[in-house]
Design goal:
Helix content is 40%, strand content 14%. It is built from seven helices and seven strands. It has a seven-stranded mixed sheet with strand order 3-2-1-4-5-7-6, with helices on both faces. The chain binds zinc ion.
Length: 238
């Protein structure tokens, strides 16, 4: 039986910059990866679209949705949109129950989430909080949601845009060399944020250099950084 991964993205393209490599690695192994976008980022992360004449919020959301769907398809992942709004993300009464249902239905072995701090964008910590709460509730026998109780899948925080200010600690450097082509395809699907393309290609290259330095594996060209939310459980320290 193949595995599964749940990715919770505050806005329509966060998963692309920060976790596309991890997603592609898992889908290429035949695993199921499901991305939940809590909002389209229509107010806070769609500056370029708003420069077009006679733009409406509904049109911005549609464009962002189409781009995110194209990126997810390039990675071989499923994608769902909760449309909670942004600036601020405003979860409704059904948001947490829906997220709990996602956890229980998918039973992910791995969870990818935003990190807890981001002084540049309050939606990212809000998405973190919603993800972590829903994971814990999905574990609780008494929580009234359909499906099996969740086990204890590890949570990896993907890298925020300004890692130092977000107190992000890159504990894990994931070799994404073999899927970098797919990551670039996903990045280039986000045509409304072209200013991010080079930045994230360069970041992957830089994290790749650090991965070589920390492993001795000179074959690594590109990497993504992650931080663990919970201790790693191991049976040896190799
Ligand atoms: Zn975002």
């Amino acid at each position: 039986m193949s595995g599964s991964v749940l990715v919770v993205s505050a806005h329509a393209a966060d998963f692309v910059w920060r976790a596309a490599g991890a997603i592609a690695l898992r889908t290429r192994c035949g695993d199921r990866v499901r991305i939940v976008c809590l909002s389209y980022g229509e107010r806070g992360e769609s500056q370029e679209i708003w420069k077009q004449p006679a733009m409406t919020v509904e049109r911005v959301k549609q464009i962002r949705r189409e781009e995110a769907e194209e990126a997810a398809a390039a990675l071989g992942a499923e994608i769902a949109f909760f449309d909670c709004g942004d600036y601020p993300i405003e979860p409704g009464e059904s948001t947490i129950p829906r997220l709990v249902a996602e956890f229980r239905e998918l039973q992910p072995e791995t969870v990818l989430a935003h990190s807890p701090h981001d002084p540049y964008n309050p939606d990212h910590p809000a998405a973190h909080e919603l993800t972590m709460r829903s994971r814990v509730y999905a574990q609780a026998a008494g929580y009234p949601a359909p499906g099996r109780q969740l086990g204890a899948p590890p949570v990896f925080y993907f890298e925020p845009h300004q890692p130092e200010q977000c107190r992000f600690n890159p504990q894990v450097l994931l070799d994404i060399t073999s899927v970098f082509d797919a990551k670039m395809k996903a990045i280039e699907a986000i045509r409304t944020q072209k200013h991010m393309w080079d930045y994230y290609a360069d970041l992957a290259r830089r994290r790749g250099v650090q991965a070589v330095r920390n492993s001795g594996n000179k074959e690594i060209k590109y990497a993504e950084a992650y931080e663990r939310a919970y201790p790693q459980v191991a049976s040896d320290l190799s």
